[in-house]
Target: Asp-tRNA(Asn)/Glu-tRNA(Gln) amidotransferase GatCAB subunit C
Amino acid sequence: MTERRVSVATHWGSYIAVVESGRLMRIEPKPDDPTPSPIGPGMVKAADDSARVLRPAVRKGWLNGEPRAHDTSRGADAFVEVSWDRAITLVSDELRRVRSLHGDGAVFGGSYGWASAGRFHHAQGQLHRFLALGGGYTDARNTYSTAALEVILPHVIGGHPWSYQSRMPMWDEIADNCELVVAFGGLALKNSQINPGGLARHQTRELQLRCREAGVRFVSVSPIRSDAAGFLDAEWLPIVPNTDTAAMLGIAHTMLVNRWHDEDFLRRCCVGFDRFASYLTGEVDGIPKDAAWAERITGIGRDVIIDLARRLATQRSVIMVNYAVQRADHGEQPIWMSVVLAAMAGSMGRPGGGWGAGYATMDATGVAPDRPFVATIPAVANPVADFIPVARIADALLHPGEVIDYDGRRLTLPELRLVYWCGGNPFHHHQDLHRLARAWQAPDTVVVHEAWWNTSAKFADIVLPVATSLERDDFAAGFSDPHIVAMPKVREPAGESRTDHQIFAALASRLGYEREFTESRSESEWVRHLYEQTRATLGGDAALPSFEEFWRSSTVALPPLTGPFPGNFGDLRTDPRRSPLPTPSGRIEIFSEKIDSFGYDDCAGHPKWFEPEEWLRADRSDRYPLHLISNQPASRLHSQYDNGGFSLDSKINGREPATINPLDAASRGIADGMIVRVYNDRGSCLAGVVVSDDVMQGVIQLSTGAWWDPVQPGRSGTLDRHSNPNVLTADRPCSRLSQGPSALSALVDVERYDGPLPDVLAYSPPSLDGE
Ligand SMILES: Nc1nc2c(c(=O)[nH]1)N[C@H]1C(S)=C(S)[C@@H](COP(=O)(O)OP(=O)(O)OC[C@H]3O[C@@H](n4cnc5c(=O)[nH]c(N)nc54)[C@H](O)[C@@H]3O)O[C@H]1N2
Ligand SMILES: Nc1nc2c(c(=O)[nH]1)N[C@H]1C(S)=C(S)[C@@H](COP(=O)(O)OP(=O)(O)OC[C@H]3O[C@@H](n4cnc5c(=O)[nH]c(N)nc54)[C@H](O)[C@@H]3O)O[C@H]1N2
Ligand SMILES: [Mo]
Model:
């Protein structure tokens, strides 16, 4: 038997696939990865499961139906399998029809989603190139991950939304210089399994351990204890969810009244501290934001807050915020306030101190500041200028023509007639899925490229089967990871599936622009071309080996980038005139004249405490007394490989685990391992209970990513037999500034589920007929 060992790269790490006679047998961790993710080996189980989309399929009602808009059977209908030729005709004709009748902006190609690693087969890159060459499309701006951060930070510290990643202290500097880390949202190692675009080896765990061994003390401010690894010996400060801004204000107030704050840095390197200070002291509204005030909101004792203020100001400290704290109502505030607090604390711009975001949310964040250029599928400028903020998709479908605010602009929501999704799973990632399901009935046509019959495929009109990342040649280069990893095809595509590129090339050919789309290169020529382009840009032979050698050795190191990076806080501290920040004032904007000028009632000129619509002290908590934390899953990447071995093994009776505090369980007669129903006004789902004091009282934790399995797909509010928390979350923008998603601001209750347990049908294909 011939055994082949093939290099594999994924967002959760690099592996070796073992293939025998063309069959994928196993996926093994690479020996030099100190912390391999168990998600990889579980991919084998999903490779040929019954959920694979094997042939192009068209929804029955769409094939027969006129008119197609406002057809209410999306998500409930059967499908008809068609030939590739027929599918390409249907999609290209429909694109042509919609463009000529409704204009190019009626095509929505925002298509948010993580898809798979690989520089060439980048699903969104392929789609955007295809749609831009065909006349353009309405795009989506910002990400579900960090929309609030991406919009607020350029006002506060300036620069590209992601530039903070190279301006904040790296873990090794923290180990060498820092005494105290205060992490709002914790430092969950489960999340550092992931790095967007891939990574050669995981490093966060080792680096955290190094910090601990060097004597750095950790404080984890989070509703969940396990957000900090046990070896950190972190002090756990359970906090009422969504109240981080109030906690930071309480700390800031304490610093101010005790004159522990860094007056020199605030005067020289920041603007607007005085105006913020008069809010802090209560001079403007009669409410001093002191430690006692913060205790009432956050549940963190005033003595703890005062002690934290003293330690932050007297020790070399770094204030860290994760992303979950800003995927919330008024999510801009904790980000802005964390920068202000760091500016007050005295370590900003000093080695290993100051401020940073996203540590341990991705493996390379805080590991390396950046990596050099690596070529990717070339982008084509989009002739359509219109866009929507990424999380406003249901609004756009439900209320075309409505005008919304966004970062000082007024945007008219476009009328979208054709929705094209490639590389994302909106029926996983969007909030309030019942609302999304209603919105999804509005367009004429929904086209989806998917490898599996997940919920987004089932809610589409035309489903085109795609090859997975194991079924094509490519190479990976992850965010900040200074390596390139080869991704040769491990096996042939399942059924009739094709790569996204092949599909778009066939469509472009039918639409008359194949040559422009493919540049007359085959897929393998593209992969080699992108590698050669990278090699030439980085300095040829001196920088990278030949393509053949790279393909043989599977991993090559890129020259590391060490800076100096523009806009760093050390230079600012040294001389703010010579090294201004790229903000309007050249300094850190504690008060932003620009944001103030927008006149928003939900985002003012300086950071402020705004009560969330849903939180534990809201009126609604009488009916729904638990705060839902729908965080990232430890067992997969979002919804990807929910049908993989590792995710399936983590389920309780086929449902996603939901963790609650023993006191909340006892008062409801719930015991460990039971199946429960989690519910609110928006919907309900089942889950398998884990009872643990890892989670503070008043909180229920249910990770995202279980494929939505509505009992009656056409009925709003219908029970989810499986466990998708987005049937419970609210589709409410963070604020008028960012319009970001606020998934982590939702109240629910939970009860025992004593009815007969329905089968989970999430992984079963819909009813499929032949033509
Ligand atoms: N309640 C709640 N909701 C959340 C969050 C939360 O914290 N709470 N987090 C949000 C965040 S941070 C994010 S980033 C989003 C993630 O949302 P998504 O990025 O949409 O989630 P994924 O499951 O990664 O979806 C990727 C899809 O692409 C498909 N795919 C993979 N490779 C390819 C390919 O090569 N081609 C094509 N055509 N398809 C491919 C996969 O099968 C999968 O269906 O979810 C958001 N939603
Ligand atoms: N294994 C795995 N890792 C992932 C992903 C995945 O799907 N799976 N997704 C990746 C992606 S796309 C992203 S954007 C990042 C996201 O990174 P994060 O947003 O940081 O991750 P989450 O797991 O959503 O949240 C981390 C913790 O924040 C805490 N938290 C929630 N709300 C609050 C709050 O109001 N206050 C405080 N103090 N804490 C709160 C919760 O206890 C939660 O466990 O993760 C990445 N890493
Ligand atoms: Mo994300």
